[in-house]
Amino acid sequence: MNKKIICEKCGAEMLPIDSNKPVGMTCPNCGWGWATTYIDPLQNDDTTYIVSLAKGNIATRSAIKIVAKISNKNYVQAKKVIENSPANVYVGKAVQVKDILILLESQSLSYTVTPKFPYPLSKKMKDSDN
What we know:
elongated
């Protein structure tokens, strides 16, 4: 969890019960805490997804920076990836793929996901069956 949660009983910073899944928080100072039995299916998805840039994207400066970040390439390499698409830019699990897709959408980059990504994004997700 990125946001600091403060204990309502003593004011200390709460810690996650499980660092791998957001199931609850506990206070290291007074022991107060909370937990949930609901775990987002995205968190338990062990599928490996492949994110590919579609053909026809424009290599703007901001798009190149995003592709460089996603694909762990330098600026010149990322520009070539965009220009020579379709090309795979990321392989990973659902939690990370969701963040990658949000970044791609922020630059209006067209992409595909294999297998089909079944989770909604905070923005309207593009059809990944193209």
